[in-house]
Amino acid sequence: MRPDRLNPLFVSADSLKGVGPGLARPLERLGLTRVRDFLYHLPDRFVERRAVTDLDQASVGENIVVALTPIEYRSSAGRGPFRVLATDAPGNVCAITYFGRNAGWAKKSLPLGETRWIAGRLDQFGQMLQVVHPDHVSEESAVALGQLVEPVYALCEGLTQGRLTALIQQALVGIDDLPEWIEPGLFDRMKWPSWRDALDLVHKGEHREARDRLAYDELLANSLALLLVKTANRARRGTPLAGDGRLRARVNLPFALTGAQRRSIAEIEADIAQEAPMLRLLQGDVGSGKTVVALESMLIAVEAGAQAALLAPTEILARQHFETLTRMAQGTGIEIALLTGRDKGRAREATLMGLHDGSIPIVVGTHAIFQDAVQYRNLALVVIDEQHRFGVGQRLMLAQKGKRTPHCLAMTATPIPRTLTLAQYGEMDVSKLDEMPPGRQPIDTRVVAIERMADVIASLSRHLGTGQQAYWVCPMVRELESEDLAAAEARFAELKEHFGQDVVLVHGQLRPEIKDAAMERFAAGGAKLLVATTVIEVGVDVPNATLMVIEQAERFGLAQLHQLRGRVGRGSAASTCLLLRSNALSETAKRRLALMRETQDGFRIAEEDLELRGGGELLGTRQSGETAFRVASLEQIQKLLPLAHDDARLLIERDGGLTGERGEAARLLLYLFERDWGVQLLRGG
Ligand code: ADP
Ligand code: MG
């Protein structure tokens, strides 16, 4: 139960004046559904303007505030702009220019002969100075001069800066400060503002301390929650699992395990032999062979007389795992069942029965395997695949069925830098598959300018002509969702013109059945080209797909690019990855793409990417879904996470129940950042 004093923060967005059904939708797309979300929608940057009285003092390109007096209206023919000629105090002439059908509005806000304060960017048009679509036009000097610094927020269709700024300001009203949860020594040393002051400051101007403070809050909440999971887990009892090797000996593998696989299996085996439930992360690049490790681990559990479950994030992945595992485990004679939300009727009943009486020792499925209707006789190990989004904690809670806590193995292919491992997985123990199975073909990666689209389509056509398949990936970030979606649809239409019915489209807005059907058609070879937004990231395994085109590659996180690229190069044929880039790339962006060309080592990519971007260029270029954080930037994570982590540990050592004064404050923090599953663990014991 969320503490009452946080209620004002969690009131829904439509309680704000002016938010009706029309505005609610774009707001929702930006993730702004409650008052709290507005407070934490931080500016990407600020426009800074200089007040001038004489346009001669300003330079072209500068953002200024100036008093101008309109002297003449000039419409142009056809679709040309409407201009208002105006003079400053010394008599310099400047045009205020409006495109589109804005003449009526312009005349009304800029009556001839009356001085108005204009805020905008000074440009030049031929010999004449001009301001195109001023940001503000005001009668009051105080209003104009009060807007010398203005936040620029991430927007989406249906919202304007002015509108969003006003809503954020409205949201801030009536929010009281909360008790301080930051350790007093650190708080003083950093010269941070209080939580409430920080919220005001970050929306007013560049204020490093305020921004750091809010980022720190988020990191602290995260560290605390993860530590609580870890602590609660330690207090629980699992089933010690000692296998005798009889099933593992009958697994039929066409290859020898890599050293890294053997090491990881040994680490897992040692963990689950203990009574304390295992909480281990298996980190291994795409293709590094995590599935075998999962199988061997589950077989140990079965040898010890217990049951094991493998949780996959999607229906398709669950099916693929089911097929692979069944094939590999054929010689063992044990039954592996598949259970997803789609299974109904008799087959489902039989599976439920088998899990209940223990005759089915291994189940593979989606989250359906943790529904209440599913009873296990003695589930002792849960393997979670592709756990690359934050959510380990939540999943763990799901796994807390029965008196004994199952051992948990989370597998991720996302190569994340060490600092971020800590942020996302807290103090989980980590096994790394840092050695690829032998014989992997390198993926020929090339960076291609978008102008060469015709060439790209030509080589795609040749490629499909040989009977091989391909992926075409379009970017999709939440801030630009509708635009991105439109772009993906347009690309799909274009590719369909070239390749007809051989093309299928998959994106997050499609209904799951439609998405699955398209994926399945592609996986079965019926479709030759899969156009997709990043949903294929954790998707299919189609060895015949050997070409991947990624559009606007510079907009992806490198870890994401790396993971996408890992979808090809799965069969024996040589594979290619084309990274299409836009024209205007920053130096950093160029180097990031070059790094992709250079190496296929996910761990190296993750570390170097963090380094490349750590030095700035962060605001506004953050990739969605890259970290679990909305407030903290990568730079802040690197700088502040170790502090937050130590602080959290100290707090829990001193006040594990979070019942002291600071503990209570920290509880508020957990709710504020919706890591309240951490608090629930405290209660549940
Ligand atoms: P991941 O899940 O880590 O992306 P998979 O488990 O799907 O990787 O393995 C990728 C491919 O490599 C599979 O075809 C698998 O059979 C093969 N593989 C796994 N381990 C080895 C190994 N030690 N030697 C050769 N091939 C392997
Ligand atoms: Mg896998």
From TrEMBL:
A Gene Ontology molecular function term of the record: DNA helicase activity
InterPro entries attached to this UniProt entry: DEAD/DEAH_box_helicase_dom, Helicase_ATP-bd, Helicase_C-like, NA-bd_OB-fold, P-loop_NTPase, RecG/Mfd, RecG_dom3_C, RecG_wedge
Xref: SMART domains: DEXDc, HELICc
GO biological process: one example: DNA repair
Pfam families linked: DEAD, Helicase_C, RecG_dom3_C, RecG_wedge
Keyword tags: ATP-binding, DNA damage, DNA repair, DNA-binding, Helicase, Hydrolase, Nucleotide-binding
Domain Helicase C-terminal: 442-611
Superkingdom in the source lineage: Bacteria
Annotated CDD domains: DEXHc_RecG (cd17992), RecG_wedge_OBF (cd04488)
Protein name, per record: Probable DNA 3'-5' helicase RecG
Organism: Novosphingobium kunmingense
